């Protein structure tokens, strides 16, 4: 399996072992920003005629739908103070709460980069790519926490449902853990 990490994360794959446990050699998965990367990679491989069995999008980020002013402010804030930006970002997505429960999780984070943030903010999810993968027999599964601060659940459901099996978790946040 090929796995893509979220923005500001590395090695967090184990947090989603309950989702990824049955993945095989021809499967791809990604968390948050990594879901965008996994979609692009799966699409590229399938377009080249390479085998892709399953694509698993875990809490896919849909920030490209946000207004341009929001995106500009995010990039400017990051460039001004990357460490402060990441601390706020981690707090907003519930990571700080998870760290309070388990300080070993600190090893899964890093500073990220302005380029990755811009990619995250400006790369739209393309329904035609999902459609293409579906037409090639790729099983697409999407996992959404309905209390995820990075997405609008109704919008996400409307976007993914025609092309994927969508798993919804009521009361769960970005990390698909129950909000407390």
Describe the structure.
The model has no long low-confidence stretch (mean pLDDT 93). By secondary structure, this protein is α/β, with parallel strands linked by helices. Strands 1-2-3-4-5 form a five-stranded parallel sheet, with helices on one face. It is built from eight helices and five strands, in the order E-H-E-H-E-H-H-H-H-H-E-H-E. It has one domain: 3-Layer(aba) Sandwich (Rossmann fold), CATH 3.40.50.
Major pleated sheet: 5 strands, parallel
Domain count: the total is 1
**And the CATH topology?**
Rossmann fold
Average the pLDDT over all residues and give the rounded result. Answer: 93
Please state the CA-atom Rg, rounded to the nearest Å.
16 Å
Strand adjacency order, main sheet: 1-2-3-4-5
Give the topology string: H per helix, E per strand: EHEHEHHHHHEHE
The assigned CATH architecture is 3-Layer(aba) Sandwich
The level-1 CATH class: Alpha Beta
Query: Uncertain spans, ≥5 residues at pLDDT below 50?
Result: none
Please give the number of β-strands.
Answer: 5
**Global geometry:** globular
Specify the structural class: alpha/beta
**Strand portion, in percent?**
5-15%
The helix tally amounts to: 8
Brief characterization of the structure:
The chain has 180 residues and is an alpha/beta fold. The chain has helices at residues 17-20, 33-47, 68-80, 82-92, 95-101, 114-122, 127-135, 153-160; strands at 2-4, 27-31, 54-58, 139-145, 165-169.
